[in-house]
């Protein structure tokens, strides 16, 4: 690991100032991914700004929904009774993630910023456009079973590994960001979770809309997705502690046996949590029946660009989607 | 049966050297090496921290990049906490920080200031009395090589404290952060259920 | 004295293991120890063109950087063929990706790691051979198959003629991937020089082999090298060979004039210590309409490194030779050289991978013949070894089949694939046979009676979690007729009398007889001392009249005439009485075929749409001779089965097909079973009294329980889904129909 200095500010202004004070500064929250990446030389910050002292470790509920502090631990969010009552899909996604130990450390905000598990990215012995822009992507013609079938480019086909982000995408959640304002002081803005992550295009090193020095302060879950039918389904070879081969998050509003509106996002298939508007459109107004789910799931493959080893993800994601819809609407 | 006294130096002259492997920490290097400074070079980025481990406060000067795991093992010589993968994926390094089970390999020591760290060495009540979880692991043979065992036990103690239902299915899921390559899983589950009953 | 051998007593090292007190190789406190970190190549073939060490050398605390340019020369040429002598930084050759090319030593671990990350190498890259499928034309016959004990090929009868005339003919090809042992404890060595004497604390399955390898490479006498290893955090074969990093640690220690500790990172464990090589196995079965075997061919090809590094063959066909009564059998073994590290033994090398192919093929035959898979195995049961044409010293496979089937409920299986369901969930039942040879080598031990009559027995053997500490104490206590709390067994130090490598499931079968022989020798010494002692209570007897009982030498016919060992020693002014003994196999294998056997039964539950495979029940019935400790034996059997579950469903080292670099060198993406994957496992032991195998009657239990698990699960997956998967691991995408 590269040597670095460590600062522990108590508020956003202090944090952004500390981050601005050194080149190659990084924020650290739970550290479960960043420390791994630093050990592997993928991240080489010279200055770490510890966010643990910032006051973003609470979950609050209001008329417009929930506000989950970015520093809330995954395990605490998963155990929060009110969150579980209103948006159970969040706990489902969290409890399908990582291990109890890692969930005790990792934060909700940090979870959204974890980096791809692509083995080429995580090993400096390989070229990788995400890690070393312009060096090439050996994964495309290499070991690509786990990689993306949506949203990749000629430069990068990595998937985003988060389960939580997939559930949040299906909940129309919003990420609250705070950082240095251009005119000085701090500025706060909100970005829809679906807009938060970027597709690789020809700049795979840019993964989110975060600006230099900006911090995730909260995740906002809108009231309109509370209490809906939902389910998070994760498919994997190992029964636990494995990243998703594919996963499906469905949030469904129903009247009688009919779907008013469905929100569908999938994990393990895309460069970012992958919303499926065509599937959602097909489900709107449809009855909650196997044939309707199958008809909608048929749209899930639209635009898929499988690689040599991951074509199976197309069929698997459709089946996962149908199953998640069946469970959510049962 | 009576527990053999593995930690003593051995009762025979010849065996004292030979059994040194089983004896507590032979310091063979001392005789061989000339006296002199042997501490690491001090660099400006080092920070002075106080690490509270099993109720004892230790003063340490460490670089911020030193993990809790390496601080325990390489600085405090508390080797009970094991390094298996060093990337948070095996659970061998599980300790409790402020009562929560975490992987110490991804925890920076410098961020543990003011927190209470608990390791396997602090679990038993002195030499005499094993923690019920340790006793249950022994009874149910919840290990073979023993290398993942401290992590399994620390994780299991936390699992019980977390108040999860201790069904087979729940234990299987909530212990899945601790890999045992010897495959002692069924015995570990039996031990956890037994220990929870004893406690 | 009630005998304790066989009883389910707790592990004697258990208390140390549950308290964190067990010391593994990296955990000995050595004053002034420096830390070494390996640097490995990022090219798969060619030569090192040069290094840029400026950045690494600039790291505070760096003590030395060893590269092929400056590393001391070792006695590689004289070391002998059994020594893996590459890569030891002796030249600029690069033969595989992830090969050691430098060692960085610094005063702290973090500095050594960081400096190692800054070492920059450039290469004159060659054209590597990476894909086994592309290199099959290079296949060659192994030159040292089974250390030259037998040729790599065998045949009996006329398999081709049997094929030509058979009603049922199956021609099937199976594949197994590269797998890694991944013991939880990484390889670790601390090396300490005192003049020209070397002490190493090293994670090893072979104290003796480590001692001799290091002595050879440093051209010093073996007794100038001491190897200490009281605990091994799992080995599974990868700590059998003394891999080059051990000598590199010693080299670094000599270079910096300080003790040096080197621990492999988990990623380095993928290119530094062997692996189970990938195999391609073609099986041809000729059978009668009712499933009687008429002909059997097993052609195995396994991956190798470049031959210059050494040789290892995965002997996939050995069980095929002897498992079934079949008159016409041919077996071949071939190697395909790749730019890859040297493969090595991994838990049941050959049997685990070979039985996946053979026992899957037998299941395919059962389906083709319309015969129950268990019934088909009984139909072809070999009463004597059909390959060696010898009787078995003992064989209780029939009882294993019966007991396993009974416990599992096999009779309730309906044969049609997909015919058993629980709601929508597909249920599959599969079974397979397990077998493993009885291996034994010469071993020796020392026994010391202390002043209070307590006993220490020592042997330079290992306990990998296998229970050596415990079972040897049990054997010794019973042979001494002493309570076990007065008997201590010590291992893991090359100062003790030597013992073989803990591999091939041979430790109990080798060291156990040595312990018995040593007890005998010690008793004779005691008796002689008692008889020679003035006014002894046993005076006037002969050694044949005497017995040792509960710490007393006594006259068998008049037990009140006795003297305690402690008193006897005191009487003679002794503070100890010491004896050494050894035992070696004789010619018994000339007359008998010696194998353990077992039957594996597995149930899988598979979601009909998502195709996730979950194992719901496992039953293993084993006959492995005498069971020395029922508790440890059960654990070892369970552990082997769990290892087999990983092999069947999860494990695969993924290697980039273009540059030969591992893409999942960790335990997050190299999937091993976790708690959630493993159901309760029922193990059954068939009691065998086999006095022919060795004086202890034990056949070994380290490897047998993994054998057949992969096939049993593959057969269960077939039974659940109708999909026959012939390449491991069986993951979702392979059964997604």
Keywords:
heterotrimer, A: 330 residues, alpha+beta, five-stranded antiparallel beta sheet, four-stranded antiparallel beta sheet, 12 helices, 28% helix, 22% strand, globular, B: 199 residues, five-stranded mixed beta sheet, 7 helices, 5 strands, elongated
Overall geometry of chain A comes to globular
Q: What kind of oligomer do you see? A: heterotrimer
Average pLDDT of chain A works out at 97
* Number of contiguous helices of chain C: 16
Number of distinct beta strands of chain A? 12
Q: Give the DSSP E fraction of chain A (strand runs of 2 or more residues).
A: 15-25%
- Mean pLDDT of chain C, nearest integer? 97
Distance between the termini of chain A: 50 Å
Low-confidence blocks of residues of chain A? none
Q: End-to-end span of chain C in angstroms?
A: 63 Å
Could you list the spans of chain C in which at least 5 consecutive residues all have pLDDT below 50?
none
Number of helices of chain A: 12
User: What's the main sheet of chain A like?
Assistant: 5 strands, antiparallel
Extended strand count of chain C = 27
Largest inter-chain contact set: B-C, 92 and 102 residues
SSE topology string of chain A: EHEHEEEHHHHHHEEHEEEEEHHH
Supply the helix-strand structural class of chain A.
alpha+beta
| Biggest sheet strand line-up of chain A | 4-5-8-6-7
User: What fraction, in percent, of the residue positions of chain C are helical?
Assistant: 10-25%
Q: What spatial order of strands do you see in the largest sheet of chain C?
A: 3-5-1-12-9-10-11
Task: Give an overview of the whole structure.
The complex is a heterotrimer of chains A (330), B (199) and C (737). In chain A, 28% of the residues lie in helices and 22% in strands. Chain A is of the alpha+beta class and 330 residues long. Chain A has a five-stranded antiparallel β-sheet. A four-stranded antiparallel β-sheet of chain A has the order 9-10-11-12. The radius of gyration of chain A is 20 Å and the shape is globular. The relative contact order of chain A is 0.13. Chain B is α+β, with helices and mostly antiparallel strands. Chain B has helices at 13-18, 28-32, 68-75, 132-139, 149-162, 168-174, 185-198, and strands at residues 47-53, 56-62, 94-97, 100-103, 116-118. Chain B has a five-stranded mixed β-sheet, with helices on both faces. In chain B, a hairpin with a 2-residue loop joins strand 3 (94-97) and strand 4. In chain B, helix 4 crosses helix 7. The longest helix of chain B has 14 residues, at 149-162. The two termini of chain B are 23 Å apart. Chain C contains 16 helices and 27 strands. In chain C, the strands form six sheets. In chain C, strands 3-5-1-12-9-10-11 form a seven-stranded mixed β-sheet, with helices on both faces. A five-stranded mixed β-sheet of chain C has the order 7-15-14-13-8, sandwiched between helices. In chain C, strands 16-17-25-26-27 form a five-stranded mixed β-sheet, with helices on both faces. In chain C, strand 26, helix 15 and strand 27 form a beta-alpha-beta unit. In chain C, helix 15 (630-649) packs across helix 16 (709-721). Chain C starts with 13 loop residues before the first helix and ends in a 16-residue tail after the last helix. Chains B and C meet through helix 1, helix 2, helix 3, helix 4 and helix 5 of B and helix 1, helix 3, strand 9 and helix 15 of C.
